[in-house]
Amino acid sequence: MAEIRVKTSKRIEALNITELVEKTMRGMEGNLLHVYTQHTTCGLTINEDADPDVMRDILDALERMVPAKYPYRHSEGNSDAHIKATLTGSSVTIPCIQGRPAFGTWQGIFLMEFDGPRERKVIVTLI
Questions:
Q1: How many domains does the chain have?
Q2: Do the Cβ atoms of 5 and 39 come closer than 8 Å?
Q3: How many CA atoms lie within 13 A of 106 on its CB side?
Q4: How many angstroms separate the CA atoms of 29 and 125, rounded?
Q5: Average pLDDT score over the chain
Q6: Entry pTM
Q7: Are 117 and 7 in contact, with CB atoms under 8 Å apart?
Q8: Beta strand 2-7 pairing with 42-48
Q9: Percentages helix, strand, coil for the chain, rounded to the nearest 5?
Q10: pLDDT tens by residue, 7-43
Q11: Rounded to 5 degrees, what are φ and ψ at 60?
Q12: What is the largest CA-CA distance in the chain?
């Protein structure tokens, strides 16, 4: 198990952390990669990493579904971030073949920041 620190620079953004995860898992043994974040206002997802417009469209769609400006009850002003993080989830699991994640052709791992900028912890485990 290893921990990665990821710095975000915007309130809402999608950061491709695929290379960082692959670098971190080098030397670890296992056939199942599990990537997890301990935070409640960011998430992790696997999606297309070839065309950045895909992630922009996803962030735009999440904003339409869960707008930042809404009369939420949570007093910290970041309820939308909590809801978006719930929709994306806090972990991803990928099978490994010959020590590498078995991604599809266009897949990558993204940290989905919804309440930044912040420094986020991501735990990488090979099982």
A1: 1
A2: no
A3: 8
A4: 9
A5: 97
A6: 0.96
A7: yes
A8: unpaired
A9: 25, 35, 40
A10: 999 999 999 999 999 999 999 999 999 999 999 999 9
A11: -65, -40
A12: 50
Asked whether 81 and 114 are in contact (CB, 8 A), the reply is yes
Look up the CATH number of the domain holding residue 98: 2.60.120.460
Helices (H), the chain: 18-25, 52-65, 79-88
Q: Residues 18, 44: contact at Cβ < 8 Å? A: no
- Alpha-carbon distance 91 to 38, whole Å? 9
Are the CB atoms for 11 and 42 separated by under 8 Å? no
Question: What token pair was written down for 56?
Answer: 């922009």
Residue 77 confidence class, pLDDT cut points 50, 70, 90: very high
Please give the average per-residue pLDDT across 103-112, as a whole number. 97
Domain limits for position 38: 2-126
Which SS3 state, helix, strand or coil, does residue 82 take? helix
For the record, the structure tokens of 61 come out as 């769609």
Rg (CA), the chain: 15
Is residue 61 within 8 A of residue 14, CB to CB? The reply is no
